[in-house]
Design goal:
Layout: H1 13-33, E1 46-47, E2 51-53, E3 66-71, E4 76-81, E5 86-90, H2 96-109, H3 142-163, E6 174-176, E7 181-191, H4 199-204, E8 207-215, E9 225-231, E10 248-252, E11 255-261, H5 262-266, H6 271-290, E12 314-315, E13 322-323
Antiparallel strand pairs: 1-2, 2-3, 3-4, 4-5, 6-7, 7-8, 8-9, 9-11, 10-11, 12-13
Length: about 325
């Protein structure tokens, strides 16, 4: 398959809207059944070889620990307990209301006592409508979802490579169900007071961050794109250069996003290198202005400075200095 296959938003918008709500149903079960982690790291999905997973959750009230997995190869949802019990059903041919009903049925069948605390969509236009009443969203095109899964997997590997260059506090590469994006975040560990923000935002941005990721398009950015932002945003960020030339800063809720569309990456001679160049340039723009310094950077994922020495550079064990005798050989 093509490294980054085409996936224009309009080609699967209805399917994406349905799948997004499916993901929110399961994400809220994960939220209700998992131990809280800093910056909500317990909440997002992680990738598997066939789809996305809640990871082991629970146990709750003495019950068995369980996982919920989207399998985007068989296009089924699997609920499994660690003692080997399993329930599953197809993702195709279901409205959100059907999906919610069948998910709850599977949980009851496996004696899993976890329910979403607020079974409504989060930050979506129909946030007032319970999942159980949503008969509108019912599109599921398996071919489109397979492409989404392929793109998600490749971008996750790219973000893993990007993440390797920073030795400071870094989130996992994870798939957020509320915004339906894939993200990895670097932290400076400086506290950021946010007395006026809601509790979700306060926890997410309680420290300085530079976040990088990818989303599949929405009403604000109607095309899939790579992105990066710095929070809090330092003055002058939107004047800093980005690479490649097609990348740009765009206003977003009072701050700015660095954006490079997926199609611009696909059109490049080396799409992988182009996406990494963009993410690094956006990180450098924010890090330099915020005064992060470079002591936490580790090119190639190597923190040991001895291992980062150029080939042929040796160290005198007595003085700790490089010797050049063998370089001339």
């Amino acid at each position: 398959m093509e490294l980054f296959p085409p996936l224009p938003l309009e080609s699967w918008r209805d399917t994406k809207e349905t799948l997004h709500r499916f993901a929110q149903v399961i994400g809220k079960i994960r939220l209700a059944g998992s131990a809280r982690r800093n910056h909500w790291w317990n909440v997002p999905f992680h990738l598997t070889g066939r789809g996305i997973t809640t990871r082991p959750t629970g146990p709750t009230r003495g019950g068995d620990a369980f996982t919920v997995d989207f399998d985007f190869t068989d296009h089924r949802l699997y609920v499994r307990t660690l003692d080997g019990a399993e329930d599953s059903f197809p993702l195709t041919g279901r409205s959100v209301a059907d999906f919610y009903r069948d998910t709850l049925r599977a949980l009851v069948h496996l004696d899993i006592d976890v329910l979403p605390d607020h079974p409504y969509p989060y930050d979506l236009p129909d946030a007032h409508r319970p999942f159980a009443d949503d008969h509108e969203h019912r599109s599921y095109d398996p071919a489109a979802v397979t492409t989404y899964w392929h793109v998600l997997s490749q971008v996750a590997l790219l973000l893993e490579e990007y993440a390797a260059g920073y030795a400071g506090k870094t989130s996992p590469v994870h798939h957020f169900w509320h915004t339906f994006d894939l993200a990895v975040t670097r932290f400076s560990d400086r506290e950021v007071p946010q007395p006026a923000a809601d509790p979700v935002t306060r926890e997410a941005y309680s420290r300085e961050v530079i976040s990088a990721g990818f989303w599949f398009g929405d009403d604000n950015v109607p095309a899939p794109a790579f992105y990066s932002y710095t929070a809090p945003e330092p003055a002058g960020l939107d004047t800093r250069p980005l690479h490649p030339a097609a990348a740009r800063w765009t206003p977003n809720r009072g701050s700015h996003l660095a954006l490079l569309t997926y199609d611009e990456v696909r059109a490049a001679a080396d799409p992988w290198a182009t996406a990494l160049e963009f993410l690094e340039s956006a990180y450098r723009a924010g890090a330099d202005l915020a005064g992060w310094g470079r002591d936490r950077e580790c090119p190639g994922g190597i923190t040991d400075t001895e291992l980062r020495r150029p080939p042929g550079a040796e160290t005198d064990t007595d003085t700790g200095t490089d010797t050049a005798a063998d370089r001339e050989r």
